[in-house]
């Protein structure tokens, strides 16, 4: 992406970062694309925060892990959300790192749940990322195929005549954000979500 600018992409794009000083979400729709990507994925403790304009930015997931507010604000039309961070915790982590990651996941899940309730996306796609690690960049084909299957199932369910009356899929039926049964055909992929390592 060297030299490319966000506003030059054929499809409008908005990346989000988190202001280190204020904790606020910062939307990036214009400017250097590579810089914006670096800022939006600058995981604290692993990657250095990135200066973008007047903001020092880190991973956007800290402020908005499922940035539906930004999508509604900048882009008209139906909203399709892809949630790759939904976790169903079956075991209690035993290590300090595992407990830290669990706490971070719970916080991000709550933020995503609140945005989902506010914005009510027409479709939520929840891929089964259980077999994919956070830094598993060397197996893109697996991730792509997983996402493709989830999207096809979600669209098929959403188009079914017995789907939810308003066409809105929540996927958050309790505080643990367990996705609905895939057989319920409510426009959401109800595949078992991943849980972090311990």
TrEMBL record:
Keyword Lipid metabolism applies: yes
The UniProt record lists the keyword Lipid metabolism: yes
Limits of the PNPLA domain: 1-72
Region span, Disordered: 154-198
SUPFAM superfamilies: FabD/lysophospholipase-like
Listed GO MF terms: hydrolase activity
InterPro entries associated with the record: Acyl_Trfase/lysoPLipase, NTE, PNPLA_dom
PROSITE patterns: PNPLA
Short sequence motif named DGA/G, residue ranges: 59-61
This protein's UniProt keywords: Hydrolase, Lipid degradation, Lipid metabolism
Biased composition (Basic and acidic residues): 174-184
Protein name: PNPLA domain-containing protein
């Amino acid at each position: 992406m060297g030299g490319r600018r966000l506003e030059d992409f054929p499809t409008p794009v908005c990346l989000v970062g988190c202001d280190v000083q204020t904790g606020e979400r910062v939307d990036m729709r214009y400017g250097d694309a590579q810089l914006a990507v670096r800022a939006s994925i600058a995981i604290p403790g692993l990657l250095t925060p990135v200066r973008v304009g007047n903001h020092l930015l880190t991973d956007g997931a800290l402020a908005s892990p499922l940035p539906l507010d930004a999508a509604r604000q900048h882009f008209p039309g139906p909203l399709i959300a892809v949630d790759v961070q939904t976790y169903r915790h079956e075991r209690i982590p035993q290590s300090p790192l595992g407990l830290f990651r669990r706490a971070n996941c719970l916080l991000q899940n709550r933020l995503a749940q609140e945005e989902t309730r506010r914005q009510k996306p027409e479709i939520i796609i929840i891929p089964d990322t259980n077999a994919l690690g956070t830094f598993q960049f060397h197996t893109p084909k697996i991730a792509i195929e997983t996402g493709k299957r989830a999207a096809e199932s979600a669209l098929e369910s959403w188009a079914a005549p017995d789907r939810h009356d308003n066409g809105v899929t929540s996927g958050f039926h309790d505080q643990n954000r367990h996705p609905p049964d895939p057989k319920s055909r409510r426009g959401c992929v109800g595949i078992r979500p991943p849980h972090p390592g311990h």
